[in-house]
Design a protein that fits this description.
There is one protein chain. By secondary structure, the chain is an alpha/beta fold. It is built from 23 helices and 8 strands. β3 (57-68) and β4 (71-76) form a beta hairpin. The protein starts with a strand and ends in an 8-residue tail after the last helix.
């Protein structure tokens, strides 16, 4: 079992730290040393309401394994320990030797002389590279303090107090048998300990809690460990995870709940751990149970949302579209205060308020609201079908780049690169309507262009491209090309290559994607499969009649949330 706690820099003085051979030497740069010095200088301890404690500055974790009484092997963090030692050593020089603080020791398995050199780091010594970097860091510390002391408002005693008593290190003591495996995990790819791992150690180590019944405590912690795994495994379901979050995260997804519970405003990457360490500071079984129950309450609420189809879709839409920047925490708080019907009304009103100044008739390809309106249209269409039990896949939507796609193509030949022109012409020729005016002549022109490779000439290709596009758009008014009734959602991978394909080719791609089991938003599929059109539909064209019926359905579905003019 791993043990975790916070120790002040001053508490480190009684320990001997052993740095094994697999660790590299001290290599902190001047900038890293200065960052630490400045962070401590800028930090000011504040009273914590409701307690006798003050806030503290938190160093990143050191990971150690016990070797003997007060002696530890350093698995990770020897760079921080060495820099901490050098600052303490410098501050000690203000006193005569008899009044100096006792400092912790650092011993090196393969660099034995380094332990002795740390007793006098101010002395220049080029015997090895470690001495060079240690001396360089010490000079940086010395120079920083000298410049600070030239300032009239710098209080060195205050700095000493902040560093010794209000700077804490996350002390992570592992019981794993193979420390090299731990070191490898932490350092290959620079994977640092997460807040979730640190909090888990708080909950699952019996030594963190005072109790008269160790057997009961052990059983309770086994229960928490099992419940923890159940929550983590549930959040590993991408359907649930991306309903709640946009963040691409593979491990420790339970940390989402911890971050939501954290009321600290600190930007410290370990502020969530510090928050929980403070909440469990009394180290009582009662506190452990109370906080774990709160964690479970968050998860149970999210699970309720996920399993309720209406809540799932409306909450998922609000979080995905960042409606009014409403956070997951705000939704959780609101749902805790409201009955189910009231909460659904609250969600509806959030959406309505967001679109209060958005006019349906003004939405077009350039409008910043168009993408979210099309997403809302798809979600509401699914919800309004009482026979449909499917769920919109927010994981698919968030993991892919989604574009606003023109149903009928614009005249924009620049979207067809030179290397794609031949393919574009070969694709469209089979869909040109021979029976239409100039249909046969257009097919002949395309064939000539292909046979003579005239498409390599930009001007000749553009002229033919425009005529082909006009052929497929002959039933559609130019003014409606960029309007909402000619727009839909399509993922980038489907829409890649020459993006301005003509309607029948786009239709074929949608059908092929749907046949293969790929995700196609229901309203995108409805448009390209002509579900709104009169029978028999003109399958190779997107007509004014198609557009008008599509617009009628958009108005029918969205009118409860957007202003729609009569």
């Amino acid at each position: 079992m791993n043990n975790i706690e916070l120790k002040t820099v001053n508490e480190l003085s009684k320990y001997l730290f052993f740095v094994p051979a697999y660790q590299r030497g001290y290599r902190w740069t001047n900038l890293e040393v200065l960052d630490l010095l400045n962070d401590i200088d800028e930090f000011e301890p504040r009273e914590i309401k409701g307690s006798d404690e003050k806030t503290w500055y938190c160093l990143q974790p050191i990971v150690i394994k016990k070797r003997a009484e007060n002696e530890f092997e350093v698995i990770d963090g020897q760079q921080r320990l060495t820099t901490t030692y050098l600052i303490l050593y410098y501050l000690n020089q203000d006193f005569v030797e008899s009044r100096r603080d006792k400092l912790f020791s650092i011993d090196y398995e393969t660099r034995k002389q380094s332990k002795e050199y740390l007793l006098n780091p101010e002395e220049e010594n080029d015997d090895n590279i470690d001495f060079y970097y240690i001396h360089k860091a010490y000079n940086t510390i010395d120079e920083w303090f000298r410049k600070k002391e030239e300032s009239t408002n710098f209080d060195k005693n205050n700095y000493r107090s902040k560093f010794k008593f209000y700077t804490k290190v996350i002390w992570y003591e592992t019981s794993e048998d193979d420390p090299i495996k731990v070191f490898t995990r932490l350092n290959i790819g620079k994977i640092s300990l997460t807040n979730a791992e640190l909090i888990k150690a708080l909950f699952l180590n019996s030594s963190n809690f005072q109790t008269d019944n160790e057997k009961r405590m052990h059983l309770r912690q086994l229960e928490i460990a099992n419940e923890w795994d159940n929550i983590e495994n549930a959040l590993q379901n991408d359907k649930l995870w991306y309903f709640l979050s946009k963040q691409k995260k593979e491990d420790n997804r339970i940390e989402l709940i911890f971050n939501l519970m954290n009321t600290s405003e600190s930007s410290d990457p370990y502020s969530t751990f510090r928050f929980f360490n403070s909440k469990l500071s009394r180290r009582t079984e009662e506190d452990m149970d109370k906080n774990w129950e709160e964690i479970q309450a968050y998860f149970q609420r999210f699970n309720e949302w996920f399993n309720n189809r209406e809540l799932y879709h409306k909450i998922g839409f609000i979080l995905t579209s960042e409606i009014k920047n409403v956070s997951l925490k705000e939704l959780y708080t609101a749902s805790s205060k409201l009955k189910k019907k009231e909460f659904i009304n609250y969600l509806d009103n959030l959406i309505r308020d967001f679109y209060k100044k958005v006019s349906f008739s003004q939405l077009d390809y350039e409008d910043k609201h168009t993408r979210s309106v099309l997403l809302l249209y798809n979600i509401l269409t699914m919800l309004q079908n009482e026979c449909d039990s499917s769920y919109f896949p927010f994981d698919e939507y968030k993991l892919k780049n989604w574009n606003i796609e023109h149903i009928a193509s614009r005249k924009d030949s620049s979207t067809v690169p030179q290397q794609n022109r031949e393919d574009w012409l070969n694709d469209v020729i089979c869909y040109i309507d021979k029976s239409s005016i100039n249909g046969e002549k257009l097919i002949e022109r395309v064939n000539v262009c292909l046979n003579k490779k005239l498409f390599l000439n930009y001007e000749k290709f553009v002229q033919l491209y425009d005529d082909v596009t006009d052929h497929f758009n002959e039933y559609l008014s130019d003014r409606d090309i960029n309007g909402l009734s000619n727009l839909t959602l399509l993922d980038e991978s489907t829409n890649k290559g020459y993006k301005n394909a003509v309607f029948p080719l786009k239709r074929k791609k949608i059908i092929d994607l749907d046949k293969s089991g790929g995700f196609v938003p229901i309203c995108t599929k409805n448009t390209f499969l002509k579900y709104f059109s009169d029978y028999p539909p003109k399958v190779s064209f997107w007509t004014d009649d198609d557009r008008e019926k599509y617009e009628e359905d958009l108005i029918r579905v969205l009118s409860n949330y957007l202003e729609v003019e009569d």
